[in-house]
Amino acid sequence: MTAAEGVRIVVIGSTMVDMISYMPRVPDAGETLVGDHFALGFGGKGANQAVMARRLGADVWMVGCLGVDAFGDMTLENFAASGIDTTFVTRTPDVSSGVAPIWVEAGGDNRIVCVPGANACMTEDQARTAVESVAGVDVVIGQFEVPQNVTTAGFRAAKERGAITVLNPAPAAEISPDLLAVTDWLIPNEVEFAFLSKDSGISSGPTDAAVSDLAQRLGVHIVATLGEAGAAVFNGTRPVVRITPVPVEVVDTTGAGDAFVGAFSYGLAAGLSPATAARLGCACATSSVTRAGTQSSFPLAAQIGEALAWATNVP
Predict the structure, then answer these.
(1) What is this enzyme's EC (predicted)?
(2) Does domain 8-312 have CATH number 3.40.50.300?
């Protein structure tokens, strides 16, 4: 399979500048450690998902808010270099652009602190106008690093236009009923799945029964991402489908979930089945963990071709 043409995706979400420290292990309280090395990169769940979808070939519009600062300037330059439309990215002089200090341990596990900054200044009108303005939009993506009411407004406009809505409920939080009502696909990781399931009596993790139960209780389709174990897909009618990725040597897991969301959303927009779209998501996420960084780790042209081939070569 080759990348599809004419795919149009709007991402309502966050932008962050990642400040990544690599270390043998994280320090204990009150302890100082000497790290291995440091990297400054571009992140934010919304921006990451937008970049992944764009690398697959989608036309992508980013909806977000930046501060009037150097990080904001850098972020706009990065979007331009990535080929992402920033017509609907606003700037505010009142707060800083979003930042994310990240610790990465040997073995690739990470710990992340998000400081939203200007991301919290997005408005419902901004999201609604963006979705209504993009001709032929196929998929609208949202996350929890911007206010839920903003995402709700954008999703409501998407549903009115017949577009698919994909919500990544991260960081873990309760989902407003209004947002659930206009969400088609929910993509939690294992931590977020456990949080959303805490009131249902589920304690066994994302088993097939737990995935289908949560989907039916919330009234959505679900893809639970499971790290190196892949993903579990439930579309509301067929049994849960498990996707198992190819084992790789992990360098850095930062951004892998966002690579999955961006690729899965692209797959849906391109007309792939949910299971095949999830295979594409797993392939892109798996590729990303073999390299350091966030957006800098996402697959490029050669790896994209390999990911598409693996996703569509269903045994």
Answers:
(1) 2.7.1.229
(2) no
